[in-house]
Design a protein that fits this description.
Structural class: mainly alpha
Strand content: under 5%
Domain Glycerophosphoryl diester phosphodiesterase membrane: 257-377
Largest sheet: 2 strands, antiparallel
Transmembrane segments: 114-137, 171-191, 211-239, 245-268, 303-331, 343-370
Order of helices and strands: EEHHHHHHHHHHH
Shape: globular
Radius of gyration: 39 Å
Keywords: Membrane, Transmembrane, Transmembrane helix
Region (Disordered): 1-75
Biased composition (Pro residues): 19-37, 43-56
């Protein structure tokens, strides 16, 4: 009869001084093959327990693995990120196109007293002054032209028909340009406050003295463009007057294309100057230079968004203005638009169109300025601090 200890290997006796034999090597056990995933396509025999579907286990590199065996090749799942803080009309992070377009509408709803109320009042005053000036100047010009044609055989009254209306529009156009420039600067203040959840009153907006920096910059830029375009036209006229028709045509085409590219470049690179002048407390030229540098690396994005918004605003403007012009021509039989009723109808349409276009364009420009500064300078951190300070002070 044997005991359990009898099956254990017994030590081998050796003579003193002899070599000790090495212990026997452990038996080699082949590794068990990895379990394959169950085949769910075969029918289960009657009475067999149901087979649960295999559960993939996360392996190396995010690749699912069977039975805990790591996989390779797939990227790991992205880490969770908290949502961006949004105390106002847009989230405090780099903005997409949809967020900029939607944020411009939200800016109007966030402060309608300034965005619509103040805008409508300012535009109404400007359009009224422009309409009166246009009516008065057109009457003077038409009278002078009538006297000139009566004493001359070179021109007839039909040849100069509409000339007074066209010249009066040219003379009255700077009024609308200056007013929309001032209004754009004021609206930028309201949009910047709406970004951090604050609301500015019309009185606070009207107190801003930096608006004259925006007006001065717009005047300087317009003067520079007028000088360049005037020199371009003068050279073409000079070449044509010297019977250099080929040179005039060639210069007109090449220089015209270069002038167009230059105007687009300057317009985009100076797009952020008005919000920078209104929102930063630095000197005039340093702010202009800084706004020029801010657009570096964002030229095509700014150009695309501004062109898209300008196209949308232009379509809305024509939807409002064109029916009014047609109605004025049909009802008052005044294609020139100089009768009192015609001026009233077209003036109301122009007030609505200018209010909508100026408000929305100013909101988009302000949001583009904030977006560029978030991308380049981390302005979202400062805006978040300002929002927290404003919330704590309430």
């Amino acid at each position: 009869m044997t005991s359990p200890h009898d099956d254990a290997p017994q030590p081998t006796w050796t003579a003193p001084g002899s070599a000790v034999p090495p212990p026997p090597a452990p038996p080699v056990v082949p590794p068990a093959p990895p379990l394959a995933p169950p085949d769910l396509t075969k029918p289960v025999p009657p009475g067999a327990p149901p087979v649960a579907p295999p559960v993939p286990v996360q392996g190396w590199g995010g690749q699912p693995a069977w039975n805990g065996q790591p996989g390779w090749g797939a990227p790991a799942p992205s880490a969770w990120r908290p949502p961006a803080l949004q105390p106002g009309i847009v989230p405090l992070r780099p903005l997409g196109l949809g967020e900029i377009l939607d944020g411009a509408f939200k800016a109007v709803r966030a402060n309608p007293r300034v965005m619509f109320g103040l805008s409508a009042i300012v535009v109404t005053i400007a359009v009224a002054v422009e309409s009166v000036l246009r009516w008065y100047v057109a009457g003077l010009i038409d009278g002078a032209i009538a006297d000139a044609t009566a004493s001359s055989d070179l021109f007839t009254e039909s040849d100069t028909d509409g000339l007074g209306s066209a010249l009066s529009q040219v003379l009255a156009a700077p009024i609308t340009t200056v007013v929309t420039t001032i209004l754009t600067g004021w609206l930028i203040i309201s949009v910047s406050r709406s970004v951090i959840g604050q609301k500015v009153s019309p009185r606070e907006v009207l107190r801003s003295k930096r608006i004259w920096l925006v007006v001065g910059f717009t005047a300087l830029l317009g003067l520079a463009i007028a000088v360049v375009v005037g020199a371009y036209v003068a050279l073409i006229v000079l070449f044509a007057s010297q019977d250099l028709v080929g040179l005039a045509v060639g210069f007109g085409l090449l220089a015209g294309a270069a002038l167009f590219v230059l105007l687009v470049l300057v317009s985009v690179r100076t797009l952020l100057v008005p919000p920078a002048l209104m929102l930063e407390g630095k000197s005039f030229w340093s702010t202009v230079a800084r706004a020029w540098r801010l657009t570096r690396g964002s030229f095509w994005r700014l150009l695309g968004i501004y062109l898209l918004v300008s196209l949308l605003v232009g379509v809305v403007t024509q939807i409002v203005v064109t029916p009014a012009a047609i109605l004025s021509a049909l009802v008052f039989s005044d294609p020139m638009g100089l009768e009192f009723g015609s001026i009233v109808v077209t003036g109301i349409a122009k007030i609505i169109a200018l209010t909508l276009s100026t408000t929305y364009l100013a909101s988009v420009v302000a949001l583009l300025y904030i977006d560029v500064r978030i991308r380049r300078e981390g302005l979202d951190i400062e805006l978040a601090r300002a929002a927290d300070a404003a919330a704590a002070s309430r």
